[in-house]
Amino acid sequence: MTKVLVIHAKHLTERLAHMERQLRHWPDNVEYILEADKDELTDDLIDHYFVPGCEIYNKSGATSCAVKHLKACEYIADHQLEGALVLEDDIVLHPRFRQDFEATLAEYRLHYKGKPVMISYEDSSLQFIPRSQRVKGQWLYEAPQGRVRFNGALFISLEAARAVVKDVEVNRCDIAVDHYYMHLYGKGLIQFLWCEPCLATQGSFSGTFVSSMGQIRSLEGLRWKLKYVYKRLIYWFR
Questions:
Q1: pTM over the 0.90 mark
Q2: What is the pLDDT of residues 74-131, one digit of tens each?
Q3: Span between the terminal Cα atoms of the chain, in Å
Q4: Rounded CA separation 146/234 (Å)
Q5: Residue 124 in contact with residue 201, Cβ under 8 Å?
Q6: Cβ distance 172 to 58 under 8 Å?
């Protein structure tokens, strides 16, 4: 069974209950990445992961989230997992997530096993594969260069995790972690794939939760849902 790593801030207890409900069928295979909450960030920790003076070289919620994602990659590499499903704690899994996720893993193992692959499962950024490019029965597509999906639901292979860990050790990170992964994709260090159709949505975008960055998203959630309908129509006709 695939390991699940949950990016979680300890003070967000409502989100913990939310994730435990969703992951009740993965009870023995879930780990919570709890280190490096915002109030636990130290200068040494920030220096270890980030380039001095960069946009996330500070003690912010975004920096904490980035560190937790990088620690998830370290976990995969240290434990030599085939890979892991990395979820942020506000993610809302679609009703068929478990079944469809297993179908994507079968496709991954058939075509990409042993390669440094990340797979995005979420629709929060409203980025989709145009209908004209979709193939019946196919789940995974190469991500378009220069377009970013967020990191609320990612499968990260062992080889991709090792590539991230190595690059951080040598170069450190200097941008938000979702853009950082796309930077590694652009350099050819990882392959980034999009799942289509998407299988998850970040609750901070859809209005289920207030953003952990402190932004109130109730009205933004309604706007996001309206944009979602519009974008789905746009990509359907492309």
A1: yes
A2: 999 999 999 999 999 999 999 999 999 999 999 999 999 999 999 999 998 888 899 9
A3: 37
A4: 19
A5: yes
A6: no
